[in-house]
Amino acid sequence: MTAQRPRVAIVGAGLAGSLAAVYLARRGYAVDVYERREDPRVAPAGITGRSINLGLSARGMRALQEVGLLTDVLKRSVPMRGRVVHSPDGSTSFQPYGVREHEILYSVLRDELIALLVDAAEAHPAVRFHFGRRLRRLDRERPAITVLAADGTEEEIPADLVVGADGAFSTVRQQMQHGLRANHSQEFLDWGYTELTIPVGDDGRPRVRLEALHVWPGERGLMVAHPNLDGSLTCSLFLPFEGPASFAALTSAEEVHALFRQDFPDAIALMPRLAEEIATHPVGQLVTIRTAPWRYADRVVLIGDACHAVYPFYGQGMNAAFEDCLVLDECLSRYPDRGTALAAFENARRPHTDVLAELSKQNFVELRDRVHRPGYAVRAAVDRALARLLPGRWTPLYTMVAHTTTPYAEALARSRRQDRLLRGVAAGALATGAALVAYAGRRAVRGARATVSHTKPGRRPC
Ligand code: FAD
Question: What is the pTM of this model?
Answer without folding.
Answer: 0.91
